[in-house]
Amino acid sequence: MNFITTKKSALLLCITAGHFLLAQIDKKATKETQNLYHNLKIVSKKHILFGHQHALEYGHGWSNEPNKSDVKLVTGSHPAVVGIDFSDFSGRSKEEIEKAQKTLKQNVIDTYERGGIITVSWHFNNPASGGGFYWKDSISVAAMSLIKKGGSHHEQYKEILKTIADFAHSVKAKDGKLAPMIFRPFHEFDGDWFWWGKKYTSREDFIEVWRFTVSYLKNELGVHNFIYAFSPDNRFNSEEEYLERYPGDDYVDLFGIDNYGDFGRDGNYNLEAGVKKLTIISDVAVKKNKLAAFTETGLESIPNPEWWTEVLLKSLKQDKIKLCYVLVWRNDKTSSTHYYAPFPGQISAPNFIKFYNDDYTLFEADLKNVYQKKLKY
Q: Any idea which residues carry the catalytic annotation?
């Protein structure tokens, strides 16, 4: 029973159930979450899934249209991985939170039922000050020390996590199963643009909050449909630097990296450095028997018409790099320049079709039974 079909028929991947065991941290994870975790590992051996942030919520010049994405308009398929965000789950009124949950709930369920995969970022509004999720001088407060156990905002943080848990318990599909999600909290923590960044948070506090977050969600709130992703930005050059704030093998399922800077941002390309960093996270995942992914990247406005095959694909295809997915950032619905995936008529669209047709890349139309096991030749 294969879980990859259509244009990659010559490279079908399959495995006998029980062939290997991965170090997934939630021993009570739902069967669908366990199966997804194992199947993502299989994918990473010879392929990579393509993802797009906010792909089905809105796109270049449109929003809230059923079963639509810019990626599908260009290729005929949605991305295999769809990014959503929990940003509106705190710092909002009860009515605004409920509205956001309702919209995202349907998005998650629809993606699961189509056979796609959901990943969740969390642009977490500062619970102790104004300023939103970005650090703003004179407004923002260094809140990681305040939300940890014993901190002045710890109980408030627990209530926010309950909101997330309620959502995780709500995404039940027609088959009665909960949709799995790759949850990626406190991303780009090595930078200084978010209030949880390295400049404002000690290593000890970061690790303590991470461990509490994971433990509370799965052990106290009964969330068992999350895969937990750890993703700094690109400010590391060695495994030691990458793992400087690593909370431990019992608290992370997937090693990620967010890297725009090495892949063309502001016209700057350092692909050698970018590939080196991807190799580091891939090697760490192999050593620890976990997953690795390129959790965020892209080139704003995609001015390079060959970027997809000559920059991204060539980098991903380097020997020994094993990543289960690559995700590019969102396409703003109103901005004429803020987009990271092509749409019909965009200069890189023809090259993106080549990227889509390459045997190495997988989109949603290529997936089948990704939430099931017993995959055999």
A: 188, 296
